[in-house]
Structures are given as C-alpha cells and as structure tokens.
Specification:
Elements (H helix, E strand, L loop, with lengths): L1 E5 L3 H12 L3 E5 L2 H10 L1 E5 L4 E4 L5 E3 L10 E4 L6 H11 L5 E5 L5 H8 L4 E6 L4 E4 L3 E4 L5 E4 L8 H6 L4 E4 L2 H12 L1 H8 L3 H5 L2 H21 L14 H5 L3 H7 L13 H7 L10 H10 L5 H14 L8 H8 L8
Parallel strand pairs: 1-2, 1-6, 2-5, 3-10, 6-7, 7-8, 11-12
Antiparallel strand pairs: 3-4, 8-11, 9-10
Helix pairs in contact: 3-4, 7-9, 7-12, 7-14, 9-13, 9-15, 13-14
Length: about 350
Amino acid sequence: MKIAIFGAGSIGAYVGGSLTTSGADVVLIGRARMQAQIERHGLVLTDLHDGRRVLDAAQISYTQDPAALKEADLILVTVKSADTAQAAAAIQQHAQATALVISLQNGVGNAEVLSQALPHHTVLAGMVPFNVVALPEGRLHRGTEGDIGVQASPALAQWQSAFEAAGIPLQAFDNFEQVQWGKLLLNLNNPVNALSGLQLKAELSQRAYRQCLALLISETLTVLQRAGIAPAKVARIGPKLLPWLLRLPDFLFVRVAAAMLRIDEEARSSMWDDLQMGRRTEVDYLNGAVVKLAHSIGLDAPANERIISLIRQAEAGTKTAYAGEALLSAITPSPRSAR
C-alpha cells in the first residue's frame, strides 16, 4: 500500500518522513527547492521531546512529477490552500479512483473543493495540529504537540497502524466542521506570530501579543455563534475561555496557562516562514475565512480584516515586525467599525 504526500513542504515532508522511518512505502511530491534540499542533506526529523530520526537521501522517494500519484492508495494533500484546485486537477488526472484522499491543510473548505472535483474518490477532511519549522541542513523540527485529526470514516481503518507506528497517530472526529473551526481559532495566531518576528513561545509570553490573539478569537466566536457553529475544543482550553485566558497579566498567565507555553524554543508559525521565503501566505484561508463567514451573515470582522491588511503589506515587503502594543493598536477597531 503506497502513500503519496502531495505538497511536500515542511509539514508534508515531516509527515512523509515519519511514515518512511516506520517502514511505510511513501513518495513525496513537491517543489524543486525541497527536492534539492533533500538530495543535499536527506531529512533529519526532530521534536520537542528530543526525538531524532535521520533519513539519508537514498531512503527518500521525492519527485516533482504528479504522475507519481498513479501508484498511490492514500493521498495526503498538504499543498497551500490557494493550490487546492490545482491539486485536485492533478489527482483527477493521475490517481486511481480507489485512492483515499485526505486534506491535511489549514483553514476550512479545502476538503469540499477536493470532493467537488473528485466525485469518484473518498475525500476526508483532516488537520495537522502541530507546528513544524524548517531548519538548516535538512532538519524539520516539530515544536508543538497534538495528534493528526481526520474526519471519521471506515476507510481509515487500514491506515491507523501505519500512522501509529510513525509516531503521528490519527484521531477520528465525527463532526469535523467543528474541529476545523476549533483549529482555525488557534491558527488565528499565525499572523500575530508572523508580524511579531518572534518565536511562538516568546510571542505568547508577552501580554500585548496575546491580547491581539484574544481580540481575533473573540471576534470570530461572535461570528461563529451568529452562524450557528460551535467550534470544538482542540486544545486543553475550551474556545470560550481562550480570550479570557490570553488577556491575563503575564505573571498569572505563566501560572494558569503553563501548558500553552510548553512550546519548543525554535517553533514559529508557518506564516512567518512564508514571509521569510517571500511566499504568499494563507491569511485569506484563516482570517479571511472569518471575514467571509461574517459577511455571509451580515456582520463585519474588522480586527481580522485589519490583520489581513498588515499581512498583505508584509508580503509586499513593507514593515514586517511589530511590537505588541503597536500591533494591538493597529488591529483594534474603532467603536463605529462594527456593523
């Protein structure tokens, strides 16, 4: 049984590399930059628990050619959300109809895009809760905890053991829309972290940055409530308590929320990495999903709109690092901005 990782950047290569180390038959499909890096250094997979697994280049099957999908029994889609439709077209062209397709992408709606384009495939929604940062000499470092979440389906049964053996077990959920929105609430920190210029732990240790995240989450919870969506608890703290917790003074936060700061010192958000590499970010599929949902029910989401604008400026090469208070001021809406 062959597994294809379609979109093997940092997350995809970490998942695919982990499966490879446990003996699974894996092909990574991605871009030239990652292929060249693997050919030079292989892959070194490390994590916050001091785990270390090493693969040399000869042990890794990596190609830029989507025709490799034709041999896959399981396809894990890890492309950026903006590339989902293009990925679906490649799967439709090359993959066998019996292949199970799982979207392991940020945001909401990617699985629906895949499903609409692939009516003959079983397509499941999924999400990767942990952070992976690319470091020099082929090292991919997992800096946070969590199990891969997947929409519940009998089709998962034959794959559970492979992921368990790889140290990245699958956790199945029945109502996956709630899980996706629960994960998206946490991902609202991606632009905050990217604009802070700091590692995740350093950023979350400062109240002003946490207040930015609390503002974005509070606004999103209001939108979700009006839309009749109850986000799932995907972290140790439930969604409704998160804004209160994040706004605590630093001396209380480190006591009450110590688990939230159990983050590797090296961890950063994928959006920070995108800005450093000069790539377009996924902000439209995170904060943008909040704004889109808000508009669909006659609301505005001004804080999320403002941070999207700041990320756009950063993508264009203007200011990319904000002090906490400056960022909070920049995204806080005026009283008249709410509809």
